[in-house]
Hints:
26 strands; about 35% helix
Amino acid sequence: MEHNSVIEQMRQLIQLIAKHNHAYYVMDEPSISDSEYDHLFHQLKALEQQYPDLIQTDTPTNKVGGQALSKFESVTHTVPMLSLNNVFEEDELLAFANRVEERLPNQRIQYDVELKFDGLAISLWYENGVLVRGVTRGDGETGEDITQNVKTIRNLPKILSSRDQPIPQLLEVRGEVLMPKAGFKKLNRHLKKRGEKEFANPRNAAAGSLRQLDSQITKTRPLAFYAYGVAQCIPDNNVGTIGDNLEWLKHFGFENYDHWVVDSIQDAQKKYEQLIAERPNLTVEIDGMVIKVNSLEQQKQLGFISRAPRWAVAYKFPAEIALTNVENIEWQVGRTGTLTPVARLIPVNVGGVTVSNVTLHNIGEIHRLDIRIGDKVGIYRSGDVIPKVDKVWAEFRPADAEMVHLPTNCPVCESPVVMPEGEALARCSGGLYCAAQRIEAIRHFVSRKALDIEGLGDRWVESLLHLDLLKDVADIYHLHEHRDTLLTIEKMGEKSVQNLIEAIEASKKTTLARFIYGLGIRGVGETTARMLANTFQTLEALKAADIEALKKTPDVGEITAEWIADFFQAPHNLEVLDRLLAAGIHWDAPTAPTRQPLNGESWVVTGTLETMGRDEATQKLQALGARVSGSVSSKTKCVVAGEKAGSKLDKAQKLEIRVMNEQEFLDFLAQYSV
Length: 674
């Protein structure tokens, strides 16, 4: 028997077995009997035993995948995997079509309509017909190499063969990996029987399966791949439309679920309405449809905007809504002290996901919805992802439904809760003390522009929190008392511990401005901290200042003044301040203020300076009394413009504000010896 004939028989058997594997494992709809399947399998095995040199790399008789990976490698997409803009209403769809027609005047426009699968987009690379790489979409620019795992997907061709089409040197196929409904149910039955956690929905099941580090686990999962386009083909396949490309891919064994070419956007709308009705009966989960201009030449003419093509749009289905009851409304405290109300619900299934809580954002949203504990509410998933309250069914409200009020004290640390007038968000005032805010407070306190404690990075802070050595920032100055415990932390050797202790000790000598900035008071950045230090001269004077006195400080308005006053009125914050000072933090006594040459003037530094960084230029201006702003306004006194100054320079010229180039700026500084 000729080798070509043997290979052709092997290829035919491999494709047949892949087709029936897909029907059996993924769709849960066997298309042949077990004995017929066994006959095909043994026929292939017999050929391979007779011609071992001709065994195909994608044969199902071999186990796929070797040892489990330790991690996935990153891969940069040669052709970015762009995301699509979404529309949710017919008017938005018509607006999309109008934009297309305006850019393609007097041209016949057809649209390719496809299902929007609820799965994971991937890219497949074939070199001379052999699958060499599978990559996730990732962020569109860079994805993860999951080649071992995609090779286990039963309906995905690993080697391209065709009776009537030449095999490209390079082919990049884009498509979606998903778990059809039948396979998902079968998998969950299996997991339940083994006492393992079931997946909430097919998308989670597909994602969890595809991102297994051990491809042997992925192989047991009923995944399917459906192609939706060609990203690269060398040599060019000379196909002119999306629809024809999808049909061309079928010659090589790719499946591409149903798609339709329509002559108008109105026909696309009809197909959308039809799909909504048929959605429950489909074998796969979808959350909408994708509409693309069918002609590839017209796609080139339309081009892209930002990170999305002008020639395609995702038309999302309306979110599914389910009714349930609010059992409680609790307040969570975020890392920056923001209080967020969260409704605890009687668990309900919304679009295939069990929802047991939903954020209510702020007290204003609670008032807007008039939501109470005990209410019946409609829940939907925004964009089929984030659960939200659709409406409150007041007609079902029980007599004992409880109204919700903003707590007066933080539920974590009992510090007063504050919400300046005109603000939507309430916050805990115990920024230095509150356990919910401690990571953010410590990170800010040790940062370069604050106390500048080198070596106390996020990883070590988390380890110290875990060991209960850091309850608040003042505990930093007691770490030297726990030297033996520090040495038990991974990668924290004798030298590292000594360096950290020395850095902490060195940070005790600081400036009042740095210390104020390090406290992390909301609204008090580096410049405002310096203004407060210059205005009040001592920490005691700042602590005692009322709102009117604070407002007289440059850069401090009504709301920032309230935040500062609230901070220094919180007893827990004062306790931490006392401990910091008792630990030895100090700064030079104030000197009598002298009038500085740029006192109160607003300057802007923009572009790239060759002789110094922007931070250094900012410090020199501040030393002369200037306020350095990030934006140009009519109050700006001067703009220092380096190379590639951009829009700030343009605005300064338009407002006729003085502009200095780098040399002029250096000459200006030289007058004052700074």
